[in-house]
Each structure stands twice: as structure tokens, then as C-alpha cells.
Write a structure and sequence with these properties.
Structural class of chain B: alpha+beta
Number of helices of chain B: 11
Helix content of chain A: 25-40%
Order of helices and strands of chain A: EEHEEEHHHH
Distance between the termini of chain A: 35 Å
Number of helices of chain A: 5
Strand content of chain A: 15-25%
Shape of chain A: globular
Strand order of the largest sheet of chain B: 4-5-8-6-7
Structural class of chain A: alpha+beta
Oligomer: heterodimer
């Protein structure tokens, strides 16, 4: 077992984990943060995307021990409990950027990362290119792209990062 | 995944000592090849030595006339680096074409080279640019370093520390992706160096990355895609699989070299 300390959604966490525990397993099974999903489990689909030190990564391809000393943000950490949704979440709701919703947490975490790197005015082409690592099997992406464009703009006027 | 012991050395020396002590240990940095393989139980190293917390190993800087990239520099960092963009923009573009944004936030140049996947992008850049691969023990030219599919000259306790790229006069990389895996079905890196021209191909060779000397000789006389007219690559020694025949790959090499030439000349 290995001792790890990390910050998850702003909360300091200390835990004892088997080194082979994936970050996504640790989040879901130890911390019960089940918003982060396991889709393909082969680094392709992006359902497991979380932010590690502010950058989008696939938590199914990261060991929990590798996150020791680092900061993780999951879909649960985007907006405080009971508060209004994060603008990107709100944009997905408003523009119906989902059908079954399984890929949505990863889509939203990736979308927020895109805004951090590329700014608030995102072209359709940029969004589609940047979604290379997030698969949706329901929607055909049209509404996801619209949601991200709208969410990016809304984030410019929000206190939530 | 099978059980293993995790080590997080603070220096390259500590990492190398761990590799000496534990013969079957594997080095991990981004983990984007090793972890998927371990999850499938195709690899079961009893020890993992994590290089990703060694300070300074991910630096990107100019030293003399060479661009020096640390082994744990991530693809996203190389793609976004102002220094790389100014000196070897083709290399920044190549890094920006690897995997997807989340993969680029974790995957490293050292990991890509040490793995020597026959469809990886960085090996083509190293071979075309005449890079020097520096380890904790020695300096290797790409011709010595790459030794066939997933095989390199690296010894058990040898760790890549940085890669030195001499700055070329012109360069470009063009990749034709497999539509499903998004890996290079064929990728071609052309570089006009002070002394010669190099054309390196990834994705196509059954022994990994290789150079097309016939193209290089023609391009050395005149650095224009026009001199490639009528030149072809033999299909012998190229991969043939359900994604494309050797003949198809040979054709693609010629087409992509032409496109890379146009891109290299358009940048000047």
C-alpha cells in the first residue's frame, strides 16, 4: 500500500491505496465521486476526464499514486453544492448537449479545459478538433458543439473558472 | 493490472539506482502506453519508477544551435512552447498532432522515444532532424538508438534525459492518420539541414522508422517537391495489414513527402 495526499475539489485527502489503483477508481470507489465515468477504459473515449493541476487528463490512464501531491478537480467540483450550475454545465442543459448523459461529465471537463487554453470565443472547427479525445455515441455532436461555444462565452462573465 | 511497487525518485541518479537494484523495473512518465498495456496484463513489471517528479527534466531551451527538450516534457508543452514554435515549428506541430488534448497533457517525448512504437511521430522527427538522444550514460544518434519495432539501444538501467535537435533551415511533418486509431498510417518528416536533406518515414516500415535516401538525394540537389516527379518508394519492407497494403503505404510516402515539401517551403 502507498500513502497519498492530494487535493480533490478543494478538499485535502489522505489515503492509503494499492499502487495499481487508477485515479478514476480512487475517485469513484474511495471518494464516492461517481460523476467521473469509466467508458472505454482504454484512454480513447474521455468519459473519465478530470483536471489534474488544472489540465484535462484521462483518469483511467493515471495512477492514483501519480496524483500524490497534486490537485484534482472533477465534475462535482465545478460548482459548489446547492449553488447554481457552472456556466458550462448550464450551457449543456440549455442547449441539450446530451442524450444519455454518460459522456457528459468528460465532455464538460474537456470543454472547460478548452476554454482555459483557447479562450472564450471558440470556432466550431476549434471545438470539433479539440473534442478528438471525447466520444459521444448518441448525439452526433451538433448540440455538444453548440453547448461548448455558448458555455465558453458564458464563462467570460462568471466567477467560476 | 498485476501488483507492483511504485517508486518516485527525485533525481535521475536515484532513478537509475532503482533500475539497477530492480532488474525488471519499468520506467514510467506519462504512462499513456505503459498503463494501458499493464491494464491488459500484457506487461507486469514488479516495480514502476516514476520520472515525472524529477525537477528540471521537462525543460525546453536553446543551447547553442540546438533546441534541447527534456525527457519528461509533455507533448502539450512542446506544442505550445514559444521557443519550439520559433526555432522548429514543424516539431511543435508534430507534438500537437499526437493523440488528443488529454493524452498530450500526460505523454512525454522521452516516453515516446523509449517505446519506439512503429507508428509514433517523434521518431521521425529525431531521424530527419539528426537529433542526439542523451541518456544518463551516453549520447546516441537516432540511427543507433532505434533498433526495430518497440526496440531501442537503451540498456536496463539507462534513462533518456534529453533530446537535442539541431535547428534546420526548413522542416515539415505531414501525417496520414488511420481513421480509427488516429495513429500514423504513414507520417513523413522532411528537414533541410545545413549539410543535407533528410526524409524520415514513420508508420510504414516493418522495422520502424526509416529514411528514404532516393528522395533525399534528389531534394539535396534542389529543395522542391518538383524533383520528386517520377520517384517512387519500393513496397518491399513496408507494412501490409487490414488498414492498407504495402503498395498503398509506398504510394502514401510519395504523396506525403510532396505535401511535406510544399509545407516546408511555404513556411520560409
Amino acid at each position: 500500500m502507498a500513502k497519498i495526499s492530494l487535493i480533490v475539489n478543494g478538499n485535502p485527502i489522505n489515503a492509503n491505496v494499492d499502487p495499481r489503483t487508477l485515479l478514476v477508481q480512487f475517485l469513484r470507489e474511495n471518494l464516492r465521486l461517481t460523476g467521473t465515468h469509466v467508458g472505454c477504459d482504454t484512454s480513447q473515449c474521455g468519459a473519465c476526464v478530470v483536471h489534474l493541476d488544472g489540465k484535462a487528463v484521462k483518469s483511467c490512464t493515471t495512477l492514483a499514486v501519480m496524483a500524490d501531491g497534486h490537485e484534482v478537480k472533477t465534475i462535482e467540483g465545478l460548482a459548489p453544492d446547492g449553488a447554481p450550475l457552472h456556466p458550462m454545465q448550464e450551457a449543456f442543459r440549455e442547449h441539450h448537449g446530451l442524450q444519455c448523459g454518460f459522456c457528459t461529465p468528460g465532455m464538460i471537463m474537456t470543454a472547460v479545459d478548452i476554454v482555459h487554453r483557447k479562450g472564450h470565443d471558440l470556432s466550431e472547427h476549434t471545438i470539433r478538433e479539440e473534442l478528438e479525445g471525447n466520444l459521444c455515441r448518441c448525439t452526433g455532436y451538433q448540440n455538444i458543439v453548440q453547448s461548448i461555444a455558448a458555455g465558453a462565452k458564458a464563462m467570460a462573465n462568471s466567477d467560476l473558472a | 493490472m498485476y501488483e507492483f511497487k511504485y517508486h518516485r525518485p527525485a533525481t535521475v541518479r536515484q532513478a537509475a539506482n532503482l533500475l539497477v537494484k530492480n532488474e525488471d523495473a519499468k520506467v514510467i512518465a506519462g504512462g499513456h502506453t505503459l498503463l494501458p498495456v499493464m491494464k491488459q496484463r500484457l506487461a507486469n513489471p514488479p516495480h514502476l519508477v516514476d520520472l515525472s517528479h524529477i525537477e528540471g527534466l521537462d525543460s525546453i531551451e536553446m543551447k547553442g544551435r540546438s533546441l534541447v527538450i527534456g525527457a519528461t516534457a509533455k507533448h502539450a508543452d512542446v506544442a505550445a512552447s514559444a521557443i519550439v514554435g520559433e526555432t522548429i515549428p514543424a516539431l511543435a506541430e508534430l507534438a500537437g498532432m499526437i493523440g488528443d488534448p488529454a493524452v498530450r497533457h500526460k505523454g512525454t517525448i522521452g516516453g515516446s522515444l523509449a517505446n519506439n512504437d512503429p507508428t509514433a511521430d517523434y521518431p521521425a522527427a529525431c531521424l530527419a532532424l539528426g537529433a542526439t538522444i542523451v541518456t544518463n550514460k551516453r549520447r546516441l544518434k537516432p540511427e543507433e538508438f532505434f533498433q526495430g519495432l518497440f526496440t531501442t539501444a537503451l540498456e536496463n538501467d539507462e534513462i533518456i534525459t534529453r533530446v537535442m535537435f539541431p535547428v534546420p533551415k526548413k522542416a515539415a511533418y505531414v501525417k496520414f492518420r488511420n481513421q480509427a486509431s488516429r495513429y500514423a498510417l504513414v507520417g513523413v518528416f522532411v528537414a533541410k539541414r545545413p549539410s543535407d536533406v533528410r526524409v524520415a518515414v514513420t508508420g510504414a516500415g516493418s522495422e520502424g522508422v526509416f529514411r528514404v535516401t532516393a528522395f533525399e538525394e534528389a531534394l539535396k540537389k534542389r529543395f522542391s517537391h518538383k524533383v520528386l516527379d517520377g520517384l517512387t518508394v519500393p513496397a518491399e519492407g513496408l507494412n501490409s495489414d487490414l488498414h492498407g497494403s504495402a503498395e498503398y503505404r509506398a504510394h502514401l510516402i510519395a504523396v506525403l513527402t510532396r505535401r511535406a515539401m510544399e509545407a516546408a517551403n511555404a513556411k520560409a
